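S.,

Sequence below, as promised.
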Amino acid sequence: MEDKQAVTTPAHEPGTNKGEELIGNRGKEPGREDTGTNETGRPMGTRTARDSTSINPHDPIDPASPDMPPA
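The prediction came back faster than expected:
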């Protein structure tokens, strides 16, 4: 059997943020708005066209029409 060598390099690159740390450092992403929490205490929110695309986003022409960004 071969001898196993110890790993000397870290799995996490220093200076690379975790995804959950980004909101604390940069704030909410453009196009996402908080609307409060639901009955279980989980955060709720809405999305605008800005969240779907950053290339010339447009909100619905008719304010009464639903905002249906792509999934």
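The mean pLDDT is 75.

Coffee later?
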